[in-house]
Amino acid sequence: YGNLVALNFLRSNEKGTSIWLCRCDCGNEIEVSYNNLKSGNTKSCGCWHEKHSESKSRLYKCWQGMKSRCEYKKDNNYHNYGARGISVCNEWSNSYISFRNWAVNNGYKNTLTLDRIDVNGNYEPLNCRWATDEIQQNNRRNNVYIEYNGEKLTLRQIAKKYSEPKGISYKTLWGRYKKLKWDLEKSINTPLKYK
Fold it and tell me: Which residues pair with 60 in a beta bridge?
């Protein structure tokens, strides 16, 4: 119901209306009549006006997206998250403010995205970081790591470190190694015919 989640039925008031204990997204708990929940007259513990100014912010949308893909079965990405058992810790799921405070204290910038360090782990403070697109791309479940020069790297990392300085793009390296089935050494070191 807005920013409120009904937790427990508490009692009926003198008019026979049921009173529920609710938790707000900010973490506060309040008692609310069922009529006010159903009608939408009560949408938060009272903090809604303060938080409403953030509801269109990038960080708030990030929080909503994280919750949706883990908790809402109709989300287009649920099969990659919630259906695989990936969840959002209670602290963040129940409180945008807790998530926002963690984000601000852990390097959040508009140019970074939320990344799980262990791609099979949950969204929780010890398993999350703010990462660049490059870090995100190298932390995907479908990445294949290749041993090269004593390092375990993705093909994109190898391209950046070894082939791109020689003028061989990632796309060319990928085509040589994956499509043409060249060995990695040949893929990196064969000069382009046309520069």
Answer: none
**Residues sharing a CB contact under 8 Å with residue 153, sequence separation 6 or more, in sequence order:** 145, 146, 161
Q: Taking a C-beta distance cutoff of 8 angstroms, is the pair 29, 7 a contact?
A: yes
Least confident interval from 45-54, 61-70, 138-147: 45-54
HSE-CB at 29 with a 13 A cutoff on CA atoms is 7
Neighbours of 116 (CB within 10 A): 19
- In the predicted model, what is the mean pLDDT of residues 140-157? 76
| Four-CA torsion 154, 75, 5, 125, nearest 10 degrees | 0
Residue 21 CB neighbour total at 10 angstroms: 14
In this structure, are residues 87 and 99 in contact, taking their beta carbons and an 8 Å threshold? Answer: no
The backbone torsions φ and ψ at residue 52, rounded to the nearest 5 degrees and listed phi first, read -55, -35
Give the whole-angstrom CA distance, residue 77 versus residue 114: 15
How sure is the predictor about 82, in pLDDT bands with cuts at 50, 70 and 90? very high
